[in-house]
Amino acid sequence: MLGSSLVFEKPFLEQSICMPPSFELVVCITSTALFDCSESHEIWKHQGVEAYKVHQRARVTVPLEPGVGFPLVKSLLALNGVAGKHLVEVVLVSRNDSETGERVRYSIDYHKLRITRMSFTCGTDVTYYLSSWKCDLFLSTDEKQVRKVLSGSGVFDGMAAGLVCNIMPELASIQPNFM
Questions:
Q1: Rounded distance, CA 164 to CA 145, Å?
Q2: What angle do CA 89, 90, 91 make, to 5 degrees?
Q3: Between 155 and 149, whose confidence is greater?
Q4: Annotated domain spans of the chain
Q5: Helix residue ranges per DSSP H, 48-179
Q6: Angle subtended by helix axes 49-58 and 38-47, to nearest 10
Q7: How large is the C-alpha radius of gyration of the chain?
Q8: What pLDDT score was predicted for residue 176?
Q9: Which residues pair with 30 in a beta bridge?
Q10: What is the pLDDT of residues 35-75, one digit of tens each?
Q11: Counting beta carbons within 10 angstroms of the beta carbon of residue 66, is it exposed (0 to 12), middle (13 to 18) or buried (19 or more)?
Q12: Are 118 and 6 in contact (CB under 8 A)?
């Protein structure tokens, strides 16, 4: 059974049919791809969900640091300003519940990201909700989720997905051999 999903969406007036039609790329990104959630993820993994919730509540006004997908999202959102129209929309998707998602929302505001729609799925796999968002591109740090979307089956038909990961530490350790 799927868990409930809490969805935050733009006000109805912004979506009115009076708006001129335009092409819009909808990018769904997980909170762990957008922000560095490694510390809280370790707490969840080693101490359990209750310790994780306590950790998130205690740090609700401590912004998360940018994650590996942050620069890409910032650049995609900047296209809207350069073009003078809405070309790209970024939707945040997260397995958090609405309470633990407060820190993510605070971080979005802190970093001045123009992300107005988000979904907190209370532990349910976020890929179940991608078609509801009319997602064109899904970005995640979870290879299993990316492979699921790239399988192209059913609701994922025509949807692109990418695994975002930090390859810099690996590259930094590689020394060229000039001899």
A1: 12
A2: 120
A3: 149
A4: 21-35+66-101+112-172
A5: 49-58, 70-83, 102-110, 143-150, 168-172
A6: 140
A7: 18
A8: 53
A9: 93
A10: 988 888 788 789 888 888 888 888 899 999 999 999 999 99
A11: middle
A12: no
Confidence (pTM): 0.78
CA-to-CA distance for 27 and 59, rounded, in angstroms?
27
Find all residues with CB under 8 Å of 101, minimum gap 6, and list them: 6, 31, 94, 118, 120
- Contact at 8 Å (CB) between 114 and 50? no
Domain 21-35+66-101+112-172 has CATH 3.10.105: no
Beta strands in the chain (DSSP E): 6-8, 25-30, 88-94, 117-120, 137-140, 160-163
Spatial contact of 149 and 127, defined as CB atoms under 8 Å apart: yes
Two structure tokens written together for 124: 């349910």
Residue owning tokens 């997602």: 135
- Comparison of pLDDT for 68 and 153, the residue scoring more: 68
Q: Which residue shows structure tokens 């959102």?
A: 77
